[in-house]
Design brief:
Blueprint: H1 4-10, H2 16-24, E1 28-30, E2 33-34, E3 49-51, E4 54-55, E5 63-68, E6 98-99, E7 108-114, H3 117-124, E8 132-138, H4 144-152, E9 155-157, E10 160-161, E11 166-169, E12 174-179, H5 186-193, E13 198-206, E14 209-210, E15 220-222, H6 225-232
Length: about 230
């Protein structure tokens, strides 16, 4: 069983010295009682730990769905720009959180944030071809030629070829794109190769995980048990 100060430090409540300050101030409780000491052992399976009255997630890993807004970078830290981790509320923060894959600064939509490296590797592995679904706003409507080119495996350059992808024209200049890989700026580069331009890009789904329509841009929540099972499968 981990020590209380180690556990809280790993959950993003500061260094062990800073955690000790929280304990001295009486801001940490274990099972409804003031924490006894920094070295107090915690049973993560059944104990309840709160900091300033807010419950601390004691599970080994955490899985967070974020509705990424425009103007935020998919990085763990940036000295000049707001990152996706800056949007995570304190009670969900952990020391080793990172975004699974990236969305461009000006793109929006589903982003999974976790500290589970094994799951991230499984979702991003080029050998697994996990589908990612995007809603694109285009400068010009998608054409049948575009659909055929996407399905054939588009050439981005002489040495770079995309896997076959699905392009579904929608009303007006909208289109839905289903990719099974994750090259740099891939959707924008694919349309650019066909003489079109992506004006806005929104990720709707990754594998078995769909963006919660009730989450406003910038909001996040933990995955439900069913969502976690779906994305792991």
């Amino acid at each position: 069983m981990p020590r209380l100060d180690q556990l809280l430090a790993a959950r993003g409540f500061g260094s062990r010295k800073e955690v000790a300050g929280l304990l001295r101030a009486g801001l940490v409780q274990v099972n409804g009682e003031p924490a006894r000491a920094a070295a107090q052992k915690i049973n993560t399976a059944c104990d309840c730990v709160t900091v300033r009255g807010v419950s601390v997630n004691l599970s080994e890993y955490i899985y967070i769905m974020l509705h990424k807004p425009q103007g935020v970078v998919s990085a763990t830290r940036d000295a000049n720009t707001t990152t996706v981790l800056d949007l995570i509320p304190q009670h969900l923060r952990r020391r080793d959180l990172f975004p699974v894959g990236r969305l461009d600064k000006d793109s929006t939509g589903l982003l999974l944030i976790t500290d589970d490296g094994a799951l991230a590797h499984a979702l991003l592995s080029p050998h697994r071809h996990v589908p990612k679904v995007y809603l694109a706003t285009l400068k010009q409507p998608a054409t049948q030629h575009n659909i055929t080119a996407f399905a054939a495996g588009l050439h981005l350059s002489q040495d770079e070829i995309c896997l076959p992808a699905e392009l579904i024209p929608l009303e007006g200049n909208m289109a839905r794109v289903v990719l099974r890989e994750g090259k740099y700026h891939q959707v924008k580069r694919m349309f650019a190769a066909l003489g079109n331009e992506v004006l806005a890009l929104h990720r709707e789904r990754m594998g078995g995980l769909a963006l919660d329509e009730n989450l406003a841009p910038g909001e996040c929540r933990e995955l439900s048990t069913d969502e976690l099972e779906n994305i792991k499968s």
